[in-house]
Amino acid sequence: SAVPSPVPATRVELTVSCRQLLDRDTFSKSDPLCVLYTQRPGSHQWQEFGRTEIIDNSLNPDFLRKFVLDYCFEERQNLRFDLYDVDSKSPDLSKHDFLGQAFCTLGEIVGSAGSRLEKPLTGILGKKCGTIILLAEELGNCRDVATLQFCANKLDKKDFFGKSDPFMVFYRSNEDGTFTICHKTEVVRNTLNPVWAAFAIPVRALCNGDHDRAIKVEVYDWDRDGSHDFIGEFNTSYRELAQGQSRFNVYQVVNPRKKMKKKKYLNSGTVTLLSFAVEAEHTFLDYIRGGTQLNFTVAIDFTASNGNPSQPTSLHYLSPFQLNAYSLALRAVGDIIQDYDSDKMFPALGFGAKVPPDGHVSHEFPLNGDASNPACRGIAGVLEAYQHSLRRVQLYGPTNFAPVVNHVARSAAMVLDGSQYFVLLIITDGVISDMAQTKEAIVNAAKLPMSIIIVGVGQAEFDAMVELDGDDVRISSRGKVAERDIVQFVPFRDYMSGGPGAGLSMAGLAREVLAEIPDQLLSYMKARGIKTPPVPP
């Protein structure tokens, strides 16, 4: 997938309310204040992020002052809210009465129904401290997208033999009076009366959010050698264009040099706006707030190339002292995704092993042993089922991905309405045996609400995985090209530092594999024309 343009991080505004706080004041009710603490990535130290205002005499405060945070889907952002009853003007918190605290992640708030999370306040032994209510709202930085269509009439003829081949170039003006190119139409060949195709452009790109700022449009006659001839220009603004098709949106195309030379010069043709429409571009958070659930499925490689699980050299070795690469990768990705999955039940499959009772080779066996319901409770449940399976099955081969891809695709094909989106995590030592079938499965899955994350463990060459990733060349099968890029591959060894920094490198692994999910979800919704459902009240 292409590198996204550097859009500022999504910013989220948190509103805090509490209900039934402890009453610490003798003569009146408590005067509460909420303090938010955050952690820097990779650090376990809490830093004060900000404080709300103090609300006098209330056990059910709705704080007005909000916290604005940068939100990253692919990071675990831990938050801590401490409540105090303020007794004096002192900024020193130890001088005030502690009323309780709550811990959560930003993903937990955002992933709750309507992005509203209610939690009990705790921290005072033997006392009910009431509840905290956290509401997250995405701050809009103009997300509107305008769709425009233009035609022109009686443009100047510039070509000696035929008519002109006109195209237009749009520029937005900057604060300092300079202009920045923001759109180029296609070329319409051999006509002085072109009708250009409609095009969509973010309003930000067209006018930087300032509806009265000048937009300059230049009209050219295209020449093969790149020396395009200038026909003329006109100025407009977003506010004018937004009136749509009207007599105000017919523009004279003027060539200033001709105007100076010839007294009788009127124009070099006219350009007319045929249509204008604007709609808000939905974001990942719009869909999450609207109730879209992420369904997380894990598939683990049980082929013999991983090495005998009872030997410390095996990628599947279960040491009493540390998690193996499979467990680490599963936790790194699962810990973040689970915030967006309300039932916290995760189907977990294995492939490439001989399974009991008869020892047949299976490429999609349930790690929990229950074929009718392979879902495990929480990431802890998946880890437990994985360790149990290792003791039960015999590592074998070949390494076939297609069955687990098709397994999740069958579930995804049953809910195409955007209410659910499926993420399959495949952890593998990487030597794939059914490349053609897997490509076919991925091309078919690209039409469905699903994404595939592949984490490669061990020291193998992962050329095949890089090909499946489709970043450089979009994957195809039997001449059919995948309509979306849905695979993200990451080699685990790039993040293996071991030692005290291991946690940090796992956060890096999660960032890398999850970074593309929001855009992949959006590309599905867009391709299917799914609008976000209204947020539940």
From TrEMBL:
<dbReference type="InterPro" id="IPR000008">
    <property type="entry name" value="C2_dom"/>
</dbReference>
<dbReference type="GO" id="GO:0005544">
    <property type="term" value="F:calcium-dependent phospholipid binding"/>
</dbReference>
<dbReference type="InterPro" id="IPR037768">
    <property type="entry name" value="C2B_Copine"/>
</dbReference>
<keyword id="KW-0677">Repeat</keyword>
<dbReference type="GO" id="GO:0005886">
    <property type="term" value="C:plasma membrane"/>
</dbReference>
<dbReference type="InterPro" id="IPR035892">
    <property type="entry name" value="C2_domain_sf"/>
</dbReference>
<dbReference type="Pfam" id="PF00168">
    <property type="entry name" value="C2"/>
</dbReference>
<dbReference type="GO" id="GO:0046872">
    <property type="term" value="F:metal ion binding"/>
</dbReference>
<comment type="similarity">
    <text>Belongs to the copine family.</text>
</comment>
<feature type="domain" description="C2">
    <location>
        <begin position="1"/>
        <end position="121"/>
    </location>
</feature>
<keyword id="KW-0106">Calcium</keyword>
<dbReference type="InterPro" id="IPR036465">
    <property type="entry name" value="vWFA_dom_sf"/>
</dbReference>
<dbReference type="InterPro" id="IPR045052">
    <property type="entry name" value="Copine"/>
</dbReference>
<keyword id="KW-0479">Metal-binding</keyword>
<dbReference type="InterPro" id="IPR010734">
    <property type="entry name" value="Copine_C"/>
</dbReference>
<dbReference type="Pfam" id="PF07002">
    <property type="entry name" value="Copine"/>
</dbReference>
<feature type="domain" description="C2">
    <location>
        <begin position="128"/>
        <end position="251"/>
    </location>
</feature>
<dbReference type="GO" id="GO:0071277">
    <property type="term" value="P:cellular response to calcium ion"/>
</dbReference>
<protein>
    <submittedName>
        <fullName>CPNE5 protein</fullName>
    </submittedName>
</protein>
<dbReference type="InterPro" id="IPR002035">
    <property type="entry name" value="VWF_A"/>
</dbReference>
